[in-house]
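Database export, one record per block. Field names are fixed; values are copied verbatim from the stored entry.
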Amino acid sequence: MIDKIVLASGNRGKLREFSQILESLEVTVIPQSEFQLEDADETGLSFVENAIIKARHAAAATGLPALADDSGLEVDALQGAPGIYSARYSGADATDAKNNAKLLTELAGLPEAQRTARFRCVLVFMRHANDPMPLICQGTWEGHILTAAQGDNGFGYDPLFWIDALGKTSAELPSDEKNRLSHRGQAVDAFKQAIAQYLK
């Protein structure tokens, strides 16, 4: 039976979201930072590859089952960029503000109809570092990119990501609503259903 999972991330925004979303599972989620573990080198060319690399790295270093996510923003007009490079889109010293500024510059002058985008999240759960069949769950959240930031909740590209059905940006949603609707929320819902077999 699994009662502890290491979360292969040092991102505080993600840690906060995962802790809230996974509260209902009777599992202790421990961030990899508690083990003084360096982030894995994300050498994959897809969200799935990078999530597997991160989960395997955390499981190998801690001896615990590991949960990793790789997520990002795909903008159609940019051929899917920033994609797997979402967190470091503006360079080695990237911040949310710099990433958002670069995205706005790249899309400058583009009409709303051509600013379609989506958030993607891939979750990978590995029982151990040599798990031959990792559990893989995913979620997608459709929207488009505004010309200026709105809202101060969330993190990353949330202030620029407009959800047509709600008439709001991701950063204008209360945390519980965002967790329910988002790409990460969808992936975690699938994970919570699939993980049940391991928790008995």
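Remark 1: The chain has a mean pLDDT of 92.
Remark 2: The CA atoms of residues 52 and 124 lie 6 Å apart.
End of record.
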